[in-house]
Amino acid sequence: MNPTIDLLNNHRSIRLFKKDAVTQETINTLISCGQAAATSSFIQACTVIQVEDSSKREKLAEYAGNQKYVQTAPVFLVFCADMKRHELACDMHNEEMLSGFTEQFITATVDCALFAQNVAIAAESLDLGIVYIGGIRNKIADVSKLLDLPELVYPVFGMCIGYPDQTPEVKPRLPLPVVLKKDSYSNVQDSELLADYDKVIRDYYNSRSGGNKDMSWSEQIAGMLRKEARPHMLDFLKSRGYLLK
């Protein structure tokens, strides 16, 4: 329909990058684009750590589940939800910051996600590729210590950026009627639509893996959701000053 919509619909995760460097000027531009994202009540609660130190990259790759591209990608960014500067803002006006509210956790985390998605879109518009790395939350306390993150700051996810050295297929998304509801929520037709979607995803995985992965979307989700989902996160977030109220 237009180049922007084409760009958005052509998104795919890139895990293999060329060795070509990404200039600091380009990185600065991407971060500026992130700052232009919508922000709840203008809190601007995202801080980005650009990790260049090779030993830290190696550790982060390990913490993320031995994802080697964390170590080898030309650029690796860690996006952090950050309410620390808001504490400073209160101090500047001799006000006590009332922190620990669940709403603050939500708004800071959403701010961070919106910021990062702007970075991703800007990167892809420059023919760069990206992949989000939620795996850093596997060892979130270790990541925080490695990056010297203070209280009221937590790492939400990482992002690898570089020039793609692969052209994976675009992964088919859920059927629109499953996602878009009108006036009220109804999932009457969702089971039938998901059954059809399962066939599409099974074909996609078979094609992408050369027949080595035979799985539908619902099988993948059922397998994932019968396991614990990083149960350490709640205690960690409370230790950082989040989700206390």
TrEMBL record:
Q: Which residues form a coiled coil?
A: none
Q: Which SUPFAM superfamilies match?
A: FMN-dependent nitroreductase-like
GO MF entry, a single one: oxidoreductase activity
* Nitroreductase domain sequence ranges: 10-163
Q: Which InterPro entries does the record match to this protein?
A: Flavin_OxRdtase_Frp (IPR016446), Nitroreductase (IPR029479), Nitroreductase-like (IPR000415)
Q: Which UniProt keywords apply?
A: Flavoprotein, FMN, NADP, Oxidoreductase
- Its domain of life reads Bacteria
User: Which Pfam families did the record assign?
Assistant: Nitroreductase
- CDD domains tied to this protein: NfsA-like
Task: Say yes or no: keyword Flavoprotein present.
Answer: yes
The UniProt similarity line reads: Belongs to the flavin oxidoreductase frp family.
Q: How is this protein named in the record?
A: Nitroreductase
Natural source organism: Neptunomonas qingdaonensis
